[in-house]
Each structure stands twice: as C-alpha cells, then as structure tokens.
Amino acid sequence: MNYISTRGGMAPIGFQDAIMTGLAPDGGLLLPESLPNIEDKLGEWAKLSYTELAFEVIRLFATDVPDGDLKKLIDDSYATFNHPEVAPSVEVGDFQILELFHGPTLAFKDVALQFLGNLFGYILEQRGGRLNILGATSGDTGSAAIHGVRGKPNINIFIMHPEGRTSPLQEKQMTSVLDANVFNLAVDGSFDDCQNIMKTTFGDVAFKTEHALGSVNSVNWARVLAQTVYYFYSAFRAMEKTGAASVRFSVPTGNFGDILAGYLAQRMGLPISKLILATNENDILSRFFNSGVYGKAAAVPTISPSMDIQVASNFERYLYYKVGRDADQLVGLMNDFSAKGALSVELNENGVVDDLFVAGKGDTAATLATIKRYKDEHGYVLDPHTAVGVWVAENFPSADAPTICLATAHPAKFTQAIIDATGEAVHHPTLDALADAETRCDAIANDVELVKQYLVEHI
C-alpha cells in the first residue's frame, strides 16, 4: 500500500515513510492510493476482539511492517488501557455510548497515540536516527501524544497549546510530565494559531528535514487509521445486539479527524447509514455540511475546548474525495480558502453536500442541559464534548438503525462544566493524583520564528 498527497505534488511512498513524513512536502495530507473493500470480511471481523480487529484493519495499510511486528505493536499499545474491550459501548437511553476514554489520559486520542508512539519507536529502531515531534493541541491531543512517547529514546516532543484555553486538568496532564524529552509551550493565541505555526513550520521543508521534524497531530495518517478500528468494533457490537443491518454514528468534532475515520470506514464497506457531525459554537464544519460554504470565523472559547477550532486540519482529506480525487481542483479550493478565508462546493441533487452526513450545533446552554438531563434520567455523566454529540443526535432520530454516540473523554477532565451542569464534580483517581504535581511549561509569543528558534535551541 502506497501513499500520495491530496495536492498531487509528490511521488507515492510506503507506509513507514508516510508515518515519518506527517505533512506532505507539497503542503497536502497523505492518503492511501486506494481504499480496500472489506465487505466480504465483515462476518469474520465481527467475531474478533478489539486487538485482533485492529491487527486485521491496520495490516491492510501497513504493508511494509511484518505481521509479527505489527501484532506486537498493537498488543503493547492497548495493554495500557484499563478496560478489557478497549472501547466498550454502553446503552444509555436511546443511544449506544462508545466509551473511548479508557486509555492513560482518559481521552479518545489515546486509541491512536499509544499506537503511534510505539510505531515511531519501532521505525526509529529499524532505521536509526532521531525524531523531533512538533504538535498543536486544543486539549487532549497534547497529553495523549506526550504519554505516547515520554521517555522513549531518540524522540523529543514539543507540544503547543493555547495559553488559558484548555481545561486546567488538560493542561496539568501535559505540563506535569517532566521527562527530559518533553517540552510544553503555552502560546499566546488560539488553537488555530498553534496549528498555523505547526503547519507553517512543516511547510519549511529545509527546516523540517534538517531538524527531523515529525507530526502526531491528526495530519499523521496513523492517527486516522487507528481510529477507524473502533468504528468497526462498535458497529459490530451494536448490530449484534439489535439485529440491525446498519448503524449511525454521532461524532463531536473540531478538526474532522475522528469523523473522517468513520467516513473512511464507510467507504471501505462498513454499513454506516448516517454520520451525524456535531460542533459547538465553533461551527465551521456544521455550516459547511448545511450550506456548502466552508468559511472561517473567530474561534470562541467554550466549555468543550477540544472543539474550539475554526480551521479543521483533516477537512482537506474529505474534500479530496468530495472533488473526485482531483488534486488540481483540490489545490484550487485550498488556495481560495487561503486567500479569502472561504471556499464553496456545489450541493447535490438532494440539496446537501453529502447524503451520508447531517450536521448540527450544540451551544453551551444545550450542552449543560444535556449533561444534567442524562445524569438525572439515566445516572450517566457525559463530558461536554460527548454531550454536544448526544444533543445533536437527538435532533436526527431514526427508527431504522441504532445510533452510536462517541464519548471522547472522561467527564472528570472537565470539572467546572460538570459542576455547572449537575452541581457536583466527577472524580477519577488518575486525575486526582495530579493535584499537587510539579509542572514545567514555557510561555511563548504567537510567532512562527520564535517557535522555530525554541526548537533549534532545545533539540
């Protein structure tokens, strides 16, 4: 399996090279040359455990990693999770809640980043050399990435977060990791500013090459690939339980990586009848799927900070498929967006962007009300991001297929929002242990050159 850029400006490369490359040299994102059709494997795959299923899915794409090595990487990655199913589903009201928070940092990012951290270590062991990871986080990616590579030889990690715009516990999970290879940067700006610094730095190909920069953000293909597994696993469990022939997913999303994994699973043959895209007040993605216009606005801080994003880094991958894998047309649209802050696509004959998607927005009031209602009626506490997904899903009911709502983080990570909604906090021993932890973090201006200077000094 080889990988190409959405912008068409590079020769195909293998899986391991794609993982180490991160962002393509032409500024595009990497995708496999083709997606395998797995419809004839669904019956067999439905019987597998999570790790067995992960092996079968990932091996289709990681064709330059020997099966024995890949199996060990996967087994080691998910041995860190505290639930035997890794990603269990719980029936709550009308929905199946897919709990993706049983990893080391209690967020769905662990599912991909435990694997990616081990994969980086494996490739470096095979090839030699060093890797300097540069990442941007709106909350959970940073801590999950740090915990994926902390203490690993030949790897440094530099994570930028918007100063004061992550939850206190999200920040503490990052800055309390004191391993010598971990560097936290609090940027005076928004997440979009952090992401722009990262993309601009990677766009300087000479600098990237000289300093062996790599990415853990969802621009890295391994992130999206690992996340497709839980779509398959949870769909099999829901169809087994209900006897339904298809499923629906509701996904709270800001960077489009998580829901892109579901989109790709559907293109591979998983019977997904609908993807429900849920945003908070930062609704560039829900506006696009309802209007065909993808236009920037100012990012607004909310109680679901991991979704406080107005430029979704994985959107380009979806757009590539939307324009029929036409790299020239894709480049034209991205140039429009760069120059004007907006791009547009034509609606189809049904008056929508894509028949697979519906989209909605859950604002702060709706989020708090949903958390309270599910606690009162079902005894189940949703984190603010999950609550956005649940609230939007309620606006698109279906009697034909079960709806699986992705629970992207443990509610204990968002203490104030849970108190505001329910009047009492939720605790988790992993987070309680951070209360008096020592931290290390450097404040830095919203300036690409200053960040590059920091990298050079600390590498």
Question: Can you describe this structure?
Answer:
With 459 residues, the chain is an alpha/beta fold. It has a domain at 89-106 and 222-428: Rossmann fold. Helices cover 44% and strands 15% of the residues. Strand 3 and strand 4 (95-99) form a beta hairpin. The protein starts with a strand and ends with a helix. The model has no long low-confidence stretch (mean pLDDT 95).
**CATH class (first level) name of one domain:** Alpha Beta
CATH architecture of one domain: 3-Layer(aba) Sandwich
Beta-strand residue fraction: 15-25%
Beta strands, count: 15
Q: Helix- and strand-based class?
A: alpha/beta
Helix content: 40-55%
Q: Would you give the CATH topology of one domain?
A: Rossmann fold
| Cα distance spanning the termini | 33 Å
Largest sheet: 6 strands, mixed
Shape: globular
Q: What integer value in Å does the Rg equal?
A: 20 Å
Helix run count: 19
Assembly form of the protein:
single chain
Poorly predicted regions are none
The side-by-side strand order for the widest beta sheet comes to 3-4-14-9-10-13
Q: Would you kindly provide a brief summary of this structure?
A:
By secondary structure, this protein is α/β, with parallel strands linked by helices.
List its salient traits.
459 residues, alpha/beta, Rossmann fold, 15 strands, 19 helices, five-stranded parallel β-sheet, globular
Strand and helix map with partners:
Elements: E1 3-5, H1 15-21, E2 30-32, H2 42-45, H3 50-59, H4 67-78, E3 89-92, E4 95-99, H5 109-127, E5 131-136, H6 140-149, E6 155-162, H7 168-175, E7 182-187, H8 191-203, H9 205-210, E8 213-214, H10 221-242, E9 247-252, H11 257-268, E10 272-279, H12 284-291, E11 293-295, H13 315-322, H14 327-340, E12 342-344, E13 357-361, H15 364-378, H16 384-394, E14 403-407, H17 415-422, H18 429-432, E15 442-444, H19 448-458
Parallel strand pairs: 4-14, 5-6, 5-8, 6-7, 7-15, 9-10, 9-14, 10-13
Antiparallel strand pairs: 1-2, 3-4, 11-12
Helix pairs in contact: 3-4, 3-10, 4-5, 5-6, 5-10, 6-7, 10-11, 15-16, 15-17
